[in-house]
Amino acid sequence: MLKATGYHIHFYCEPSQIPLCQTVREKMVQELPELDGAGPVRNKPIGPHPLPMFEAWFTTDHLDKVVRWSMQNRSGLSVMIHPLSGDDLADHRDYAMWLGPQLPLKLDIF
Known about the structure:
Elements: E1 7-12, H1 18-31, E2 37-38, E3 53-58, H2 63-73, E4 78-83, H3 88-93, E5 97-99
Antiparallel strand pairs: 1-3, 1-4, 2-3, 4-5
């Protein structure tokens, strides 16, 4: 049984979509006070992520609300939501949920 201590959500964008990604991030931070935080929009790939993106984090209690908001406000961006179980590989590979097209992650870093 998966024991998640929280979740990360990642909104991905092509370099030309960075302004859109920034707008979605700002709206998310304003409309979801339940978030525990949100990182900046990264203008290049980082870690296992294949495109520029931003991430936000939240507790398990807010999963439903954050997913619903993201479904309605992703503006065509690909979005990945994954648990924080302590097993980064499984969290990104086995337990991730996608809104929009699924992107190939660089899982070999785990």
